Amino acid sequence: MHNSNPQKYRLYAVITGSLIAVAALVSIVLIIHGLDSPVRQAPVADIYQNGRLIMSLDLGSCGDRIFTVSGDNGCYNTVEVHDGEIGITSASCPDNICVHQGFTDSPLLPITCLPNNVVITVHESENSAGSEDIDITTY
Amino acid sequence: MSVKKLTRLALFATLALAVYGLESMLPPIVPIPGIKPGLANIITLIVLKNYSGRDALLVLITRIIISSLLFGQMMSLLYSLAGGILCLFVMLLLNSLFKGHFMFMTSAAGAIFHNIGQLTVAVFITRTIGVWSYLPFLILSGIITGIFTGMCASAAQKFLVKALK
Question: Secondary structure of chain A: what % helix, strand, coil (to 5)?
Fold first, then answer.
């Protein structure tokens, strides 16, 4: 029964290969689309720790600042806002991928420190005119 | 399980652990969490091809548990288990569909699902939907690293066919 159609595995391979190619194309289109999206007005950075929004910063108006997000067991991430961009400059995690991600003001990719469960996402201010008086909110 | 087989599976688990340990010492290639060569998957693929899905699962779980005890925190255990087991099931399916041919494709598909599994866990742990935006990067990197590890596995397979007799 298995040998009734010995070439069938080639058909499966063609189907799988096509699916992988489609996945690759869609990913490339999504990445290029994300990179091409226009520079956002009034970017706001949301800092999440353990899934909770702990701080929201208007990158356009909050000015340069350095602060530390502390977690359990002495975990920490030093966050810096510089020239309207936000980044993690040092961290207690073993791989420091969050530090290597550098500074961003783009909503394309969040800065993520999985070991310390800290995520920084950037989005456009709901009030994109930027006339809001509040430039920092803590929760 | 014969002593011979047990010894060989233990040897493969040790090899996977060594490869994983070496890989974790490399600096990150791309500053995106979750993107890594995944070289330990070469061993999973080889065990899957030469033994069975059950044996590959055994080697995989052994490697993941010992490696997170040695190199990581308990957090990485969750990520590795979700990614590794999903990857293995996809590779098991494709390996039987392809009758053991096209290992690079089996491996690439496995790597994609490994990354999808890890990202799903990441979304649950961080409770941040924005983490999904890593998906296209992770799918693309999974395809590239998967093809590479698959080709490594088929290159190693040529020598192993005689050695494992």
Answer: 30, 35, 35
